[in-house]
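Blackboard transcription, Thursday session:
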Amino acid sequence: MSRESQFLLIGLQGAGKTTFLAALWHVVEAGKHPSALLLDRLDGNSRYLNTIRKDWLEFRKVPRTTQESERVVSMRLKSQQTAEKVVLNFPDLSGESFEQQWTDRQWKRTYKELLEAASGGLLFINPESVKSSVRIDEADSILAELEDISEQGEAAVSLPSQERGEEGAIDESVAWDKKRSPTQVQLVEILQFIEASRFQKGPFKIAVVISAWDRVGDQNLEPADWVARNLPLLSQFLKTNEGAFRFEFFGLSAQGGVYALDASQNQNVDSHPLDEPLADIDPTQRVKVVGNSVDDANDITTPIKWLMR
Amino acid sequence: MISDDDTVDEDAEVDLEKETTETSRDDAPQNVLEGEYLDLPHGKDFDDHSARLLTISRPVRTIVIAGPVSSGKTTLLLSMYELFLKGSMPGWLFSGCGTLHGFEQRCHPSRIESNRAIAHTERTLTNREDGVRYLHLKMSRETEPDAPLDFLFTDLTGEIYEEASHSTEVCKELEFVAICDHFVVLIDGERLSSKLTRHSAIQEASTLVRTMLDSNVLGSQSFIRILLTKADAFAPTASAADLNSFRVDAVDYLRTQFGDRVASLTFSEVAARPSQASEVPFGQGIVELLDHWASVGPRERSMQLNRSPSACLRESQAFFYRHFRHL
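(Written on the board underneath:)
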C-alpha cells in the first residue's frame, strides 16, 4: 500500500526545476545512493524523464519547459530506510506560467486544481538569474565612490540628455515593464496566490531550493541566510506567514558545475568546483545539497523527504 | 521498442501485446495543463469596494495621506515599500501586499531600470470622480511575527485636498476621511525652508485641518499627524537657526489652533527620498511613523461616545454617530 502525494515545482524561468527533475530521475532510477528514495517500479510512459535525464547525463543543459510542453510527471518511489512507498506527482510547469501569474494575472484552471491537490512544493531560485531593484540614489552612491577613485577624464557616468538639460533633449526614460520586476516581488505574489487559493486548509510546505548553489560566492553561507540577504522581502514574508506556509531552505547543485558549452555540442565540460572534471565523477555524486535538514550532501531527494514528513 | 524516429530497433525485445496497451497510453496527451484561464487579483490600487471587503474580513488601519500637490504623499509610501524590499525597516517585517503592481509601477521612475538619472515620482492623477484609491501593506512587528497588521494608505492627488480646504461641502464628500484611523497632513519641507513660501505652506495645512474639523469630517475622535516632508531640505545652512525657530513657532501655532479639538495632534519629520547631496539616510522618519500608526489610534482608545440623536432609527447609524459624529 502506498500513499500518493503531489508536490508542485515552483519557480520562474531558468530557476532549475527541470534540471532538478532530470537529476532526481537519474538518482532514484539508478538506485546507487544509499539513503535516497528509490524508484519502486516504472509505471506508464517515462519518455520525458528519460529524455531530460539523457541531457543531464551528457552534460547538456536540460531544455527548459515551455508552456506547450507542461505535464504532470509521476514517480513511484520507496524509502530505503522505512520501505514506505509513495507516488509522487510533479506538475512540471514552465517558468513562463509562473511569470504569467505576475504579468497577466491569470492561471490555468488545471493548475489551480493541481494546487488544491498538492500538499507542498519546491520553490526554486537560481541565484544567477535573480533580478533585483536598484534605486537611483543607491546607484548614485556607488557611482560617486567609483568616480572618486577613477582617474581624471574617465567618463564613469553618462547622464541621459534630458537630465543634462540639453536643448532639444529626447526623453530617454523607459516605461515600466512588469516582466522586469524584482524576482522576490514576483515570488511573493506567486506565494500569495497559493495562500489565497488554500483558504482554511493547513499550512503548505515549501522547500525553498537555491539551485546552482555551487555558483553562490560564499559557500559558508547557509541557504536561509542567503535568502535573507538577497531576497529580504521573500524572507520576511515566509517568516510572518507560518500559518500558511511551513518552509525549509536548501542549497542544491543538480548540475554539479558549469557546463562549458551549450546543448548543441557535446565536448569537454568545465571543471568541477574541486577541480575534478565532472565527467570523471559518478553522476550520482555530481549532485550537492546543503541545508539544516541535510544529512547526506549527495542525496537530491532530501527536500522531497522533508516535504513527505 | 519504438525509438524516437519511429523505426524499429531490431535488437530490442518486443512484447507486442503489452506494447499495444502502452502505445494507447503513450498516445494519451501528456500535456494535461490545458484549458481555460482564471483571473487572479489585479494587484493594482484598491478602490473603495476592495478596501471595504478587506476591512470586513479583518482589522485594518486606514491612513489618509493628505497634502498639496508635490508635497511627497506618494513618495512617502514608495519609500516605505522600498525599505521593506531591502529589509531595512527596523522592528518591522513585511507580511504581504495586495497592491504589489501598484507599488512596483510607481517605484519604477525612481529605479535605474527607468533610465533616469534623477529619481522621480509620477504625479498622482486620480480625481474626486475616480473615487478613493488605496495602497495596501501588511506588516508585523519583529517581536510578533504571527500578528500581522493590515494598512490601507490613500494615494490621491493633492488637488483633492486643495479643493477640500476651500469648501466644507467638498470635505463632506470625502467620507474616507471620516472613518480613517489616522489623518496625516503633509507640509512640504522645501517650501518651509524658503522665506517666500513657508508661511503659505503652514497656512495651507492649517486651513485644510480647520475645514475638515468645521465640516465635522474630523473631530474629537480624530488622530492627526502633521508631517514635515523632505527634511533633508533643512540641511545646516546659514539660516538654520531662523528656520528652526520658524518650525517651532509653526508647531506651537497649529497645536494652539487644533490641539483641543482632536483626540491627538502630533508632529514629526521625514526624509522619504533625500537628495544625493544630503547625508540624511533614505526613509528617515518612516519607522517612527509606522510605530505611531500601529500603536495609537481610535481603536486603541477607550470609547468616548456621543449621544445619538433620536432621529437615528438604525443601530448602524447610531453606532456611526456615536463614534464619528457624522451621518
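Lecturer's comment: Strands of chain A lie at 3-10, 38-41, 71-78, 85-92, 106-108, 120-125, 204-210, 245-253, 288-290.
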